[in-house]
Design a protein that fits this description.
Blueprint lengths: L5 E4 L6 H10 L15 H13 L19 H15 L5 H12 L10 E3 L3 H11 L4 E6 L2 H26 L21 H19 L7 E5 H6 L1 H11 L6 H8 L14 H9 L1 H5 L6
Parallel strand pairs: 1-2, 1-3, 3-4
């Protein structure tokens, strides 16, 4: 067994991609094949598969709780064995790349700092901690109203894109059933839908981290990362076992824009939405 991984958790649109890319530039290996959000396809696909077994997905993640029940223990064990087998099979090259695969043959055999980011980890963490009992966890959180608005923008953009694509292909669309829907997430088309999803991820993250010792958890707020990028990046890099070089950290963080913190305050609709949910925000130590 090699170096234990660093597992990133946190709600979608909360800054996991930003933090992951910063740490990747400092030497953290996060996967050879990643999607546009810098999520390792190998682990993303496994997380999606785990959720689907319970009838869930990223915007309906609560269903995964059924996998941790005593009745589902055979399913959990079989799923764990399947994931473990994949990590030591040629499929591992999807994460490792061919060069690393031929030299190490297994994902758990990594000798240098590595890990993966996927917001779904927030709900699948018990599964991964069973496979990697010494793993460390980085939790990044962001103000729920900014998250909800980012989700709403993305969901509406997906409708425009998929509808336009369908209109262009309509004459031949009968040849093959449509594989995806017209919206990435109907739930997130409303601010309340996205906000309630943020609350679900926040609740799950806190519950998951409560059982881990403090030395295995690093918590960071997206807003703090934007305002103090150098100091925070140094701290989280050390937590991940990465060498910290001041000049490189400064160069990497120079492009970070602190004005993106609490951007909802510049929008009257979003500010009103936040004020109406003042009590719910206080639960997470956030203010309107």
């Amino acid at each position: 067994m090699g170096v234990s991984p660093v597992i990133f958790i946190g709600m979608h649109r909360s800054g996991t991609s930003l933090l992951g890319r910063l740490l990747e530039q400092l030497g953290l290996f996060v996967g050879k094949k990643t999607d546009e959000n810098n999520e390792a396809l190998f682990f993303l696909e496994l997380n999606t598969w785990l959720m689907a077994q319970c009838g869930g997905r990223w915007d309906n993640p609560e269903q995964l709780d059924f996998l941790w029940t005593p009745e589902a223990e055979p399913v959990f064990t079989a799923s764990k064995n399947y994931a473990s087998d994949l990590m030591s099979s040629p499929r591992a090259a999807r994460y490792l790349g061919m060069k690393r695969y031929f030299s190490q043959r297994s994902i758990p055999a990594q000798a240098t700092p590595w890990g993966w980011k996927d917001p779904r980890n927030t709900f699948t963490l018990p599964f991964w901690l069973d496979l990697f009992p010494n793993a460390r966890v980085v939790f990044i959180e962001r103000h729920g109203v900014d998250v909800a608005e980012s989700l709403r923008v993305r969901a509406n953009r997906s409708i425009e894109t998929t509808t336009s694509r369908y209109e262009r292909a309509k004459p031949i669309s009968w040849l093959r059933p449509k594989r995806g829907g017209f919206s990435e997430s109907p739930r997130c088309l409303s601010l309340e839908g996205g906000y309630s999803l943020w609350e679900a991820y926040q609740t799950q993250a806190r519950n998951q981290l409560a059982s881990l010792s403090s030395d295995r958890v690093f918590r960071v707020r997206y807003e703090d990362l934007l305002v103090e990028p150098e100091n925070i990046l140094k701290d989280v890099a050390s937590f991940c076992g990465l060498p910290v070089v001041d000049d490189r950290v400064k160069w990497i963080t120079d492009s970070i824009n602190p004005a993106r913190a609490y951007s909802y305050r510049n929008n009257s609709e979003l500010l009103g939405f936040a004020e109406e949910r003042q009590a719910r925000l206080y639960v997470w130590d956030y203010k309107p």
